[in-house]
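User: Predict the structure for this protein chain, please.
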Amino acid sequence: MEIILASNSPRRRELLSSRGVTFKVVPSDFNESEVFITSPKEYVKSLALNKALSVLKNNPLSVVIGADTVVVFNGQILGKPESEEQARKMLESLSNNEHEVITGYAVISKDKKIIDCEVTKVIFNELSSEFISSYVLSGSPMDKAGAYGIQDGGLAKEIFGDYDNVVGLPTEKIIKALTEFI
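Assistant: Here is the predicted structure, written as structure tokens:
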């Protein structure tokens, strides 16, 4: 059975490949702005499922993995920044504070659906304005939830939970889910 990752994220591709999963990439065409759920966990699970469903419809004999990651700080969902200024503000607010990274995932076929999410707590270092400016100018924050990639280094003081989840995919849970389709 063919496995499809419904994501163009290079980080998700790397994570799955590093676990020995053979898959192909078919990016989802689902419009994320169609989801109006305020609960962060339900929001990411809905996005993950809808992304997977949009790919499954053209690949009905496959197992499709959909995922979506958000950063939650003070009850607010921080998605991908829309500008350098927004990225700077997100990083300033996360500096020296704790937040959650929540990734919703859906592993589905025409006969079965596994939908869940993973939550990881992250405590940031105190980030200087110079660090933030340099990081934003690097362009790295612009395509990442919460305006950062944990793999970039220098950001986190402590991580409580699944590191891969903070990168963008809870690989252990995905692998476990995939075994139910074999």
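The first helix runs from residue 10 to 18.
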